[in-house]
Each structure stands twice: as C-alpha cells, then as structure tokens.
Amino acid sequence: MMKKVIAVSALAAAAAATLVGCGEEKAAGIEPKIYTDSLFAVMKADRTNYTKLIIKRLGPAGAGAIKPDEHWKEYDNGALLPAQMFRAGAEAVSEMTDDFTYSLQSIWPINSQNAPKSPVEKEGLEYIAANPGENFYGTEQLGDVTYFTAVYPDVAVSDACTICHNEHKDSPRTDFKVGEVMGGVVIRVPM
C-alpha cells in the first residue's frame, strides 16, 4: 500500500511539473501529505529493518549477541529497544531542523510520555487503531502556529514487538499479535 501511495505522489509531482511547463502558475513547494508520506516511508523502513535485522537476529531470540533492554546502558552488550532507537532519531532530527517533528505514540503506551498530547493526536491514534492500513491527516493550532499533523500506523512486525509489549509490567494491553497496530507515528509540519 505504501508503494502505491508513493507512486501516486510521484505522479502528482510529475503532473505539477507539467502544469508549470505549460505556463500554469507555479505551485509553492511540496504538499504536506506528500512530504509526510515520504518521511514516514523512510522511518517505517528504518524501524522495520532495525527490529528484524538487529533486534530479532542478534537478540535473545537469535544469536544472543546483544541484550535489547529499556535499561540498555547498564549492559556491556545492551541495545536500544526499537522504540528507543526511534526516539533517539527523532531527538537527533529535532537538533538539525524545525521543518518537521515526529514521535512514536500509542493509546496503549508503556511509557506515559508516549501517550497522545493533543486532541488531533488522540483522534488520529484512535482512527488508525480502528481502521487498519489507513493513515490519518488533520490540522491543528498549537500556540500561534498551524500544523499539518499526520498519524501513521505502527504495526507489530515481529514477535519481538509483541512479546516485549505483552510481557512488560507497565503495558496497559497484553494481547498484541504480529500484524496489529500497536501505536502510531505522528509527523507534524508547520504550515
């Protein structure tokens, strides 16, 4: 489905370029939806690959060479959990640009700081949980700035995800299955 979205986005961009070539008024920048869809494609690929190729392959269920743990710094072979790796990336990006922000959130957060903080985030997370495979798009006013806010499903791609969440002492939900929506990636772009 994501490939289809990107393909449609590429066609839209090509169509816009054609219109400009025919003397039409030049469009101002990339559409927020195309921008956030593209960002999410990169984030999803990185997150999935880290989970499957590093945590699953080298962790306790694989070679046992690393110890994925929320307290990873306490171990010589400790490794960040996928959610922690995602947060580290978001924090690093926020130091480089304010053109967008992103975070991993859930209506069933293990860590309360990953709960939705705005009505649009909450609406988006509830929407993607109730409508598997669909994204949510909205706008919101925070302070003096209007944002385009997109929420994408974060799906359990491995039993490493479901086991960790289902067995964590602070998890408010303990029946996740591989393939289910566990939360969402929230991307916010100032307009």
What does this entry look like structurally?
The structure is a single chain. This protein is an alpha+beta fold and 191 residues long. Helix content is 43%, strand content 19%. It contains five helices and six strands, in the order ααββαβαββαβ. It has helices at 2-21, 32-58, 82-96, 119-130, 159-167; strands spanning 67-68, 78-79, 101-105, 136-142, 145-155, 181-190. The strands form two sheets. It has a four-stranded antiparallel beta sheet with strand order 3-6-5-4. Strands 1-2 form a two-stranded parallel sheet. A hairpin with a 2-residue loop joins strand 4 and strand 5. The two termini are 27 Å apart. Residues 1-20 have low confidence and may be disordered.
Essential attributes:
alpha+beta; 5 helices; 4-stranded antiparallel beta sheet; 191 residues
How would you summarize this macromolecular structure in one to three sentences?
This protein is α+β, with helices and mostly antiparallel strands.
N-to-C series of helices and strands: HHEEHEHEEHE
Instruction: Name the overall outline.
Output: globular
Radius of gyration: 18 Å
Unreliable spans: 1-20
Write the layout of secondary structure elements.
Layout: H1 2-21, H2 32-58, E1 67-68, E2 78-79, H3 82-96, E3 101-105, H4 119-130, E4 136-142, E5 145-155, H5 159-167, E6 181-190
Parallel strand pairs: 1-2
Antiparallel strand pairs: 3-6, 4-5, 5-6
